[in-house]
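Supplementary Note 3. Input sequence used for the single-chain structure prediction.
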Amino acid sequence: MPRTPSLRYRADRDYYFCEINGQRTKLGSNKKLAETKLKGMLEENSLKNLKRKIEQNRREEDRQQEIKTGKRPFRKTIQETVELCADKLEEQGHVVFCTSPSADAKCPSEKVVWLRNQGFLGPMATNYQIGPMKELNAGSGAILIDDSDSNVQKFRDAGGTAVLFPQPWNENRDKRERLEYVLEEIKHC
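The predicted structure, written as discrete structure tokens, is reproduced below.
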């Protein structure tokens, strides 16, 4: 069983440190501040573990539901959805992938890498926009497909056409055949 990290003092260098998962982290020379930093690190580490466990449980529940019913669960990953939509969207015209990154500094570049790895962007393709202001793309003939009520409304307010992709957190949560719904809505645009 792993030991709980504790605060240690290195007298020759006059700083406090801790080791978490074999990695030593300097916490400074002020003991009170070092204790606060250590507490924050432990809370963050346990939160990451909790999120990982929740995601593992969700995947297992989805797998069990699929085994029992022979049908995929209501949730679909972004990857599955994009893969299903990509060819049909290309038939409608030029596609620009708009995405809002999380606060993680690596997120924007990882999103572009993911799009390239899935075959949606070529090595030199630039048909993507990273940032929260998707309404900047609004205009004649532009269609936004998004799962955020507010993004869809902002896009419409800016003069574009938008389809709200059904998700449990938005007002289209009751739509079960999400892909079919989106494709039908695009036909009417």
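The mean pLDDT is 75. The longest strand covers residues 15-20.
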